[in-house]
Design a protein that fits this description.
Length: 728
């Protein structure tokens, strides 16, 4: 009882766990003080006895027990409807918990660090996660779900600071520098601080990523409450430079506890689900019980497009961005605490959308920063996502830094069926019979059409197909599917929302908001953004000035008076009402998804050729394809042009591409020709051209010239695909 008096616990009213402290005083505590503080006693001149440390540490354990007691009482008060064990039933568990040497060592760390014998720089810190893990490992009485170890640890450290300040014997041993630095030292030793609240971060991730963002794809007025984790289908991946390896699920990369895939780049085509993967990984952690958050690998997601926007306003490192950046999804994290966490805890940092770093020079700097970041924090797993376009120029640098590259594979037929079935089950939860009927209709279309199966392998296109399937049976080719999707955004949304009544616009403006005219304007905008662009930045972003100029030029052709004023209204209507164009912040506008930019730009050329007759087939081949086939950022546009043309004209263009010398440009002419074939409405009508394409690709495979292994492999895979499923 003497120690209880020293620790101020003897007459403490309402102290339920007093017996736990008394038991500790007679056994483990004394041995712990001798062992753990031996270095402190030896180094601190004038401290002849252990009692001051024993008193201080005992007071700390008392405060720890009081904090735990308070949290258990709070959990009882929060929800009296839940049957919980009485608090006294935790007494034996706490007694066993505090007999554990590693637990006592952890609780002693704030004392030792304040005494100056250890520091965070030594890799010694107050590991709150160890307490949480040890409680679970010992199979002790289950704590309430609301019990928050991080808050317990934070409060405990504050009490340690107060105890040390109040101890005359210890205070005399601490020099002024240590006294002034106690708070800083404790903050450094504690990974969880008020600005590094894992529970808050957990809630932020769930709010940011839990619901599928379908507003930009379906603005018809249909209500969706689909949760990402209920609809997510993990794709297979293929290692780019090791094609003989099996194709594991992408979850094998995301949840790599053994760090087999410590540094990875996940590549994918447009709409292949790269961002969805990183969001799913973040949610997988966030949906875990709060009491085990700190023991699991922490996901940190940096959306590079948003990061660059912050950089342009105020240069910052990755940690500074996560500390105070604008628009950080999931919430900010204190950079000092995060730095300590990264050095000592399991973490995966995901850099999403390298291809969305639009400026080539800036992208190069970002790659340097990512590689340096991986070197600075060797315990951290690093994952980068990107389209192939935007990555190619930086690929070798990542390889030199031991990053492994994996390509997301299309969904296979079973995955497609799983997605479609689950989608209709959830989207038609209140109308199950209708959901079954439309699910069967879409699955039937996919089963009966190889073109549909090809399209459905892309998660974005499959999502569009599921949305469009609500209204009608779907077209079979990609270009027409995009047309139907854009129609949904441009026409049905305005009609279903009746926006003209809700927000009246000048009558002349409403005249130009019909479906056909909006299409014309978007084709011009897409052409303006894409044409003449040699970089990704140029074909993704349009300034407000250039957007207004493009709309004004369109209105001038229509002989409209005061076209500049009307153009301002139209810009607002197209970005706020149709959701194909969107405001990107600052002075920038763009399409909500690059797919729509590429589709409308392709359509611009098709209209000029087929309807306006101001482009001949020769001009289309020479001036459009001839000057652009070597530029990968144009390949989507060019292949979509072929997809919308009559087969005869498409054949001419493909044969024109096959006739080009692509040796000095990684044979991009042949790979573009392949893509054009895939987008044609019926390539089976021209088997001679198919055979010529295979012949050209085979010559690349057999070439004795300096052709990279990647190019040979790509050519070989296309040949094998055609041999397995001949199009002719």
């Amino acid at each position: 009882m003497e120690w209880l008096v020293f620790w101020g616990a003897q007459n403490l009213t309402g102290f339920i766990f007093k017996e736990v402290l008394l038991k500790l005083a007679h056994s483990a505590l004394e041995d712990h003080v001798k062992d753990f503080f031996k270095a402190s006693i030896k180094d601190l001149v004038g401290l002849a006895k252990e009692e001051p440390l024993k008193v201080a540490f005992g007071k700390g354990i008392k405060e720890f027990l009081l904090i735990v007691q308070g949290k258990l009482e709070d959990a009882e008060d929060d929800d009296a409807q839940i049957e919980r064990p009485p608090i006294l039933q935790y007494q034996d568990s706490l007694s066993q918990f505090l007999q554990d040497k590693s637990v006592l060592e952890t609780l002693g760390q704030p004392f030792s660090q304040a005494l100056g014998t250890t520091s965070a720089a030594d890799g010694t810190f107050f590991d709150c996660g160890l307490l949480e893990r040890k409680w679970n490992d010992l199979n002790l009485q289950r704590l309430p779900d609301e019990f928050n170890w991080q808050k317990v640890c934070k409060r405990y450290c504050k009490q340690v600071e107060a105890i040390l300040r109040e101890s005359k014997d210890l205070r005399e041993l601490l020099d002024s520098e240590n006294l002034a630095g106690i708070r800083k030292s404790l903050e450094q030793s504690l990974p969880i601080s008020p600005d590094f609240d894992l529970s808050r971060y957990q809630e932020g991730l769930i709010k940011a990523y839990s619901k599928l963002k379908l507003d930009s794809l379906d603005t018809s007025g249909c209500h969706y409450s689909l949760q990402l984790w209920n609809i997510f289908v993990p794709q297979k991946v293929k290692e780019e430079r090791n094609s003989t390896e099996p194709l594991p699920s992408v979850l094998d990369l995301l949840n790599d506890g053994q760090q087999t895939y410590k540094y990875t780049v996940i590549l994918g085509r447009p709409g292949s689900g790269k961002s969805t993967l990183t969001q799913f990984k973040a949610l997988e952690w966030a949906r875990a019980q709060s009491i085990i958050l700190s023991s699991k690998e922490l996901p940190v997601l940096i959306e590079l497009r948003n990061y660059i926007e912050n950089q342009e306003k105020s240069p910052c490192s990755f940690l500074e961005y996560l500390h105070k950046g604008t628009g950080v999804s999931g919430g900010t994290l204190n950079q000092h605490d995060l730095a300590e966490w990264l050095k000592n805890h399991q973490t995966v940092v995901m850099f999403d959308g390298l291809d969305e770093v639009l400026d080539d020079a800036v992208r190069e700097n970002v790659v340097t920063d990512i590689i340096n970041f991986a070197n600075d924090y060797p315990k951290v797993r690093v994952l980068v996502t990107s389209r192939i376009v935007g990555y190619e120029q930086q690929a070798q640098r990542f390889r030199n830094a031991n990053f492994r590259e994996f390509m997301l594979q299309d969904l296979d037929i079973e995955q497609i069926k799983d997605f479609v079935t689950q989608w209709h089950k959830l989207a038609f939860e209140d109308r199950p019979d209708e959901g079954i009927e439309k699910c069967d209709r879409l699955l039937g279309s996919i089963d009966n059409s190889s073109a549909f199966r090809e399209l459905a392998g892309n998660p974005l296109l499959l999502t569009m197909m599921a949305i469009l399937n609500r209204f009608e049976e779907l077209p079979r080719d990609r270009a027409t599917l995009y047309e139907r999707a854009s129609e949904l955004l441009l026409q049905r949304w305005d009609g279903s929302k009746n926006l003209q009544d809700r927000s009246p616009l000048p009558p002349l403006v409403n005249k130009y908001l019909d479906y056909t005219r909006k299409q014309e304007m978007l084709r011009l905008v897409a052409h303006q953004m894409q044409y003449g662009a040699d970089t990704l930045k140029a074909n993704l972003v349009l300034s407000q000035e250039n957007l207004d100029q493009t709309l004004t030029q369109y209105l001038q052709q229509e002989k409209i008076s005061d076209p500049g004023l009307i153009a301002n209204y139209l810009r607002e209507a197209l970005t706020a009402r149709s959701f194909i164009l969107c405001f990107l912040g600052g002075d920038s506008y763009g399409f909500v998804h690059r797919t729509f930019l590429e589709y409308f730009c392709a359509w611009h050329f098709v209209v000029a050729f087929e309807k306006k007759r101001n482009i001949t087939i020769e001009k289309l081949k020479q001036d459009v394809f001839g000057t652009r086939w070597h530029n990968s950022s144009w390949h989507e546009v060019l292949s979509l042009i072929v997809g919308k043309l009559d087969v005869t004209f498409g054949q001419e263009i493909i044969e024109y591409l096959l006739a080009q010398d692509g040796a000095s440009n990684d044979f991009r002419n042949l790979f573009l020709a392949t893509k054009c074939c895939e987008d044609m409405r019926d390539f089976r009508q021209i088997p001679e051209t198919q055979n010529l394409l295979i012949e050209k690709l085979q010559s690349v495979v057999d070439s004795q010239a300096d052709v990279s292994d990647d190019i040979r492999t790509q050519a070989r895979e296309i040949i094998e695909k055609y041999q397995q499923e001949p199009l002719a």
